[in-house]
Amino acid sequence: MRYINKTDLFIIARNSGMLMIGIGILCLVPIIVDLIYFEFNIVGYVIPAIISVCAGFICIKVFDKYSNHKMRLKHGMIISSLSWLWACIICGLVMYFVTDINIIDGMFESMSALTGSGITIYSDVEVLPQSILFFRAIQQWVGGLGVVVMIIAILTKPGTSSAKLYQSEAREDRIKPSTKATLIQTIKIYLIYTAAGIILYLLAGMPVFDSICNTFTTISTGGMSIKNANIGFYQNDVIYFITIVLMILGATSFLVHYKIIKTRGKSLLHDLQFKVMITLIAASTIILYLASNIIPIELLFTVVSAVTTTGASVQPSTVMGTWPPFVLIVLMTLMTIGGSSGSTVGAIKLIRVITFFKGTYKHLREILSPEGRVVPLQISGQKIPDKAVAQSGNYITLYMICILITWALICLCGHDPVVGLFYTMSIQGNVGLEIGQITQVLQPQLKLISIFNMWIGRLEIYPVLITLRAIFEIFKR
After folding, report:
1. Predicted TM-score (pTM) of this structure
2. What GO cellular-component annotations does this UniProt entry give (predicted)?
3. What are residue 383's phi and psi, to 5 degrees?
């Protein structure tokens, strides 16, 4: 049975065109900063932008007759997967032209920024042009909501195509009845918090450029800083607390944010994922404080950074590598769990973990209960089908298999097992925290594998698997 035919390919190509144009436009935004600072790197942004925009127009014109064909979920997932990969390549070309690194390193840096992984390939980011620092920041800001989500909200019309593309990026929550209206409201909330973050950083004494870039990278839970010492560069507890608040906001569902005003804050207090996240932060910080000699504010900051998958830090990775093994294990666990679904975070996400453990507990109760008794499964007063438990378990299993395979390959290439495991969990969860300097010594093949891990981590595996299956189907013929 053939799952992908020519019509499917033409539908995918036609609907990918608009996304290619959007990615090209994204590459042009940093030119504003380039002109302000007289850096004269305009050509490095224009060439990739022209490539992407022209390719997009060609796809739209050549396959225009397929614009009225109904888009199915499989089309949306393949388009989403390929669009993220295309964005990685095009934005990687910008890095290649402007900073003179090789194309694999450029793709690594861009995929890390777009997916909010926040791990950088540069050993010294402070020597980079201001326009590149801004470009990395805006990639994280756009990638926080999703490259596809941002573009369809701005450039496409309401309809089935928008709904399928929205769903393809592992988003189910609806603020409004229509997908387009949901996206507009989500972006409004995102803009409000972004503006608030910039203002708070300015009031705390941070320079304007730093305030903009750090807000972009924090509210998006990206964490890729413009300073070598990350947020620790500022040595300011007020800035640390502002960053902690922004990280938590970014890791909270946009649906909850939307309801805050209408419910006078009750939506936040009643949201199970938010309550579990705060409990994890509080419990982990207290336990790790008792088990180590780490400064409390630095410990709290790192715990929040791990569970929100931001990857911002106040201590260098080499210092974090000297922390007690128990601390590192707890951080790895938090990085794997992640924050709320419907937010900007990566990792497994709290709702899957909650559903999985609730399902396990339900199974135990069924075994202990009298024969024939039905034990209901509920989360926040809503009945959850057994299918949801199975799906959560399947995803967690797939997620851990990806970590295991990548970790094994890193060890095979001669890297330290502990450092390698921490790094693997970080890239798979789109976190960005590191211990040691493994990124600076990665072999090219491991960089490509890391790009793959960041890609599947951001898209939650299934869209990429479907895309790979479709490619196999094509070449099988």
Report:
1. 0.92
2. plasma membrane
3. -70, 135
Distance CA 432, CA 116 (A): 8
> Are 247 and 312 a contacting pair, CB within 8 Å?
yes
What angle do helix axes 103-114 and 444-459 make, rounded to 10 degrees?
A: 20
Question: DSSP character for 359?
Answer: H
Distances (CA, A) of 145 to 141, 211, 430: 7, 20, 13
Q: How many residues does the chain have?
A: 477
Sequential pLDDT tens for the chain (477 residues):
467 888 888 988 988 898 899 999 999 999 999 999 999 999 999 999 999 999 999 999 998 887 777 778 888 888 889 999 999 999 999 999 999 999 999 999 999 999 999 999 999 999 999 999 999 999 999 988 876 666 655 555 555 455 555 555 555 565 555 666 777 888 888 999 999 999 999 999 999 999 999 999 999 999 999 999 999 999 999 999 999 999 999 999 888 888 886 777 777 778 899 999 999 999 999 999 999 999 999 999 999 999 999 999 999 999 999 999 999 999 999 999 999 988 889 899 999 999 999 999 888 888 888 876 777 888 877 888 888 889 999 999 999 999 999 999 999 999 999 999 999 999 999 999 999 889 989 999 999 999 999 999 998 898 899 999 888 877 765
Q: Give strand ranges (E) for 273-402.
A: 378-379, 382-383
Q: With contact defined as beta carbons under 8 Å apart, do 227 and 125 qualify?
A: yes
Token pair recorded at residue 288? 């790790």
Q: What are the φ and ψ backbone dihedral angles of 349, each rounded to 5 degrees? A: 90, 145
Tokens of 139: 């990639």
- 249 contacts 344 by C-beta, under 8 angstroms: no
| Position 232, amino acid | G
